[in-house]
Specification:
Number of strands: 6
Function: Excises uracil residues from the DNA which can arise as a result of misincorporation of dUMP residues by DNA polymerase or due to deamination of cytosine.
Strand content: 5-15%
Pfam families: UDG (PF03167)
Mean pLDDT: 96
Subcellular location: Cytoplasm
Strand order of the largest sheet: 3-2-5-6
Order of helices and strands: HHHEHEHHEEHEHEH
Number of helices: 9
EC number: 3.2.2.27
Distance between the termini: 29 Å
Low-confidence stretches: 2-6
Family: Belongs to the uracil-DNA glycosylase (UDG) superfamily. UNG family.
Length: about 230
């Protein structure tokens, strides 16, 4: 983890640096080393564990979207929740996110699932768990990542002003239940998964609501339209 810590930008290092010396992080590092030594394929690659933080400095966070754990198929995950690498088929939940964006903002669905354009504008695309074993969904839950990402959310809650939290599904809503609603906007909806999107994700209009709030607070709106090519 030491190398990953060094790669974090200064704004994150200032609030998260101590996390890397805590016992849970040492245990997590040892767990990941054992998994790799046993020949298991871990996603995303090590340099991308903290990609969400690398692309979205703390002092630039405008929106937080919380996911659960990385995609577990080869070539998919690259450190941003809901996002996949260029050339990878768009996952069903992201297809539904695009559908809601089209309904809300008349943005045509992108033909790729690479969301770095959002992250570079201040959309923190944070999974609760930052690694996974290939073909084993949720295999790294309960190993320590949740404690680290709780610290990330606390930092945004305490050190930022007027951030929009888009909490899709009960997992995200429970994880960020402590967010101060007097300082931030919290928008809740069912998860965009095909299993639940029709229960209230479609029609939630979170993208326009987020931008309306940001502009009202004197902050720049997010350009949700992705480039034609990643």
């Amino acid at each position: 983890m030491a190398e990953a810590e060094v790669r974090l930008g200064d704004s994150w290092k200032a609030v998260l640096g101590e996390e890397f010396s805590r016992p849970y992080m040492h245990d997590l590092k040892a767990f990941l080393q054992r998994e790799k030594a046993d020949g298991k394929h871990i996603f995303p690659k090590g340099a991308e564990y903290f990609r969400a933080l690398d692309l979205t400095p703390l002092d630039n966070v405008r929106v937080v979207i919380l996911g659960q754990d990385p995609y577990h198929g080869a070539g998919q995950a690259h450190g941003l929740c809901f996002s996949v690498q260029p050339g990878v088929r768009i996952p069903p939940s992201l297809v539904n996110i695009y559908k809601e964006m089209q309904s809300d903002l008349s943005i045509p669905p992108a033909r790729h699932g690479f969301l770095e354009h959002w992250a570079r504008q201040g959309v923190l695309l944070l999974n609760s768990v930052l690694t996974v074993e290939e073909a084993r969904a949720a295999s790294h839950q309960g190993k320590g990542w949740e404690q680290f990402t709780d610290a990330v959310i606390r930092a945004v809650n305490e050190d930022c002003e007027h951030v929009v939290f888009l909490l899709w599904g009960s997992y995200a809503q429970k994880k960020a239940a402590f967010v101060d609603r007097s300082r931030h906007l919290v928008l809740k909806a069912p998860h965009p998964s095909p299993l639940s999107a029709h229960n209230g994700f479609f029609g939630c209009r979170h993208f326009s609501q987020a931008n309306d709030y940001l502009v009202a607070q004197g902050r720049n709106a997010i350009d949700w339209q992705l480039p034609a090519t990643p």
